[in-house]
């Protein structure tokens, strides 16, 4: 290896370390080959604009559920937000983006694309989501009382506070 590339690799590694990413697999020594969110609690100084505007059509998704880059993609495509127009005024969008980037900066989740072309990433289509819910049938997610896999709060009462404790899960009838 030439000196220049050693320096480049060292630079890249420290840049990744600064952004909170790790090159090592984050597998918790329990043979999980996927990364799952760990810091889910919503910060107490969360943006009020975010709380209000991002819960206008669905539950409020805690920032720790997606990596910063996925939130950036969300905020860049609000005019085509899963078939809805969710644009706000530029100042509000900037405040929300700043908050989401700050609040998700510490997680090490990969950016996973939605299976629907042109859509920003979904929480409900990540590998960790599939794994955690492999015992929940499609029929249960489809129940009227549940309202689909993206409506976490139907089964995780305190989801909007970032509490997904499996002891508290309850699937409504
Ligand atoms: C005008 C309505 C509307 C507003 C406002 C809105 N959304 Fe959405 N959002 C939707 C719809 C519709 C979906 C798709 C829901 C589904 O497929 O069940 C969605 C889905 C999502 C998902 C993916 C859920 C999944 O499947 O994992 C995320 C993340 C999300 N929205 C974030 C936001 C954020 C952040 C804001 C605030 C900037 C916001 N939304 C504001 C309508 C809206
Ligand atoms: C139909 C009900 C239902 C919906 C909707 C649902 N979940 Fe779950 N969730 C469950 C069940 C059941 C488990 C498994 C609990 C267990 O392991 O005993 C679970 C487990 C989890 C876990 C792991 C908890 C732990 O302590 O290991 C996380 C994190 C999670 N869900 C997040 C979400 C998110 C985020 C959403 C929405 C995007 C969501 N869930 C939607 C039922 C649901």
TrEMBL record:
Signal peptide: 1-24
InterPro entries, per the entry: Dihaem_cytochrome-c
Name of this protein: Cytochrome C
Organism: Stutzerimonas chloritidismutans (Pseudomonas chloritidismutans)
Keywords, sorted A to Z: Signal
Family annotation (Pfam families): DHC (PF09626)
Protein's UniProt keywords contain Signal: yes
